[in-house]
Specification:
Chain lengths: 218, 218
DNA sequence: CCGGATCCCCAGGGATACTG
DNA sequence: CAGTATCCCTGGGGATCCGG
């Protein structure tokens, strides 16, 4: 990218990661951990192959990404974030938090992945009952599966499934996320196609982070 | 900008503000408040006139910027952030904080402005002695003037000058910012051309925010 | 199948000139 | 002062191809 030519830390940051696809690539590396080229390509639907290779090369040269040989089972290379690269997490959190206000409308044809389902509760909710017992919530949105695990005072989430969840939410992504962040109530979520099974009181333990509760928008 | 086509709040955010110059334009509106077109153009050295006009139109249509008639003295229009636009402040702070690690090197020819000098202490330092008496620090870097005001437990900063500062720092931007954030000591700063006059103990009241102190880099 | 490299084409951005 | 108009050029999208 052309430099903005400004001695300003915001401009400097954008000089490095302001290019198209760059921050989404960092998102993938942050959410998935060390990843192969093909996994990244799958995680970034729409990216051109050459562009992904170029970005990875640039990020490596800037010192934000490291290329390493994968551990024994696989014989290929993996890409992972360096310390400087991982330090972008607050940037992605801030962007993601701000962007939540535009998640009310689902645009037809938008891609969706389990890891994007998982980071929302993990990043943007707290446990309102930190001393409460462990619990697991199974999320299923557009056939993507994620699990929220409550306990030890934290809200953790990951892509995948769990046996014996205490609560299961199945429905369109918009409804699942809306309910998790208390932006829409169960009544409206059901109208959007949400199915709820299990201990719905657990939803009360998910307290939306500041900057979200502002006011549900039309 | 082309949409990324992903149902992910980070991608959504970048759909709106990921375009070139957009976040820097928001930075200007945030730091300067309601601004005229020409002020924005001056605050964004290097931007093409047509691009600035396009971005303002796009941001207005997205609901991030509002165009209004200026109060009586001037007969022109001003642009200002809406609530949604101003909510980008945490994003700019996160980006700016991350970018500080690349401010050690000044690139020849980089533009520099007083408002960019001011936001660094205002955003990235706290008063280590919140109950301490009011004090003012005059900053002069590359002929740009800014003032830090301590008192009432907060660190405020603005472009401009003050009479009777308690401390005055004059020198290249890199040295002034480095000293403010405790990334370089006075000894080294002086070697870089910094001049210090007044109560240098006041520097001890500026406590760098988390995410900065990590370790000065070469 | 993985990890790219190559090629073509178009939209978005840069520089400058011009206008109400 | 507040933009438009124009031209040029680069960066990115999309498809295909290629070596391991």
């Amino acid at each position: 990218m052309r430099s903005y030519g400004q001695y300003c830390s915001i401009a400097r940051a954008l000089d490095l990661v302001g290019d198209r696809w760059t921050l989404l690539l960092v998102r993938e590396l942050l959410l998935r951990g060390p990843s192969r080229y093909t996994d990244l390509k799958n995680g970034l639907p729409g990216v051109a192959a050459n562009l992904l290779a170029t970005r990875l090369r640039e990020l490596e040269q800037m010192g934000l990404v490291r290329r390493e040989d994968a551990p024994p089972p696989v014989a290929t290379q993996v890409y992972e974030l360096t310390e400087d690269g991982a330090a972008l997490e607050p940037v992605l959190k801030a962007l993601g938090l701000w962007g939540m206000r535009y998640m009310n409308e689902e645009h037809a044809g938008d891609a969706f992945q389990a890891s994007w389902l998982a980071y929302v509760p993990a990043w943007f909710t707290n446990d309102a009952d930190p001393a409460g017992p462990p619990a697991a919530i199974q999320l299923v949105a557009d056939d993507e599966h994620a699990v929220i695990e409550l306990g030890d005072g934290s809200v953790r989430a990951r892509a995948g499934r769990t046996d014996h969840p205490d609560l299961t939410l199945v429905g369109p992504a918009r409804a699942v996320l809306g309910v998790l962040l208390a932006k829409i109530d169960l009544q409206r979520a059901r109208a959007l196609g949400l199915t709820v099974k299990g201990r719905r009181d657990l939803l009360g333990r998910l307290r939306p982070a500041k900057g979200l509760s502002e006011a549900p928008r039309p």
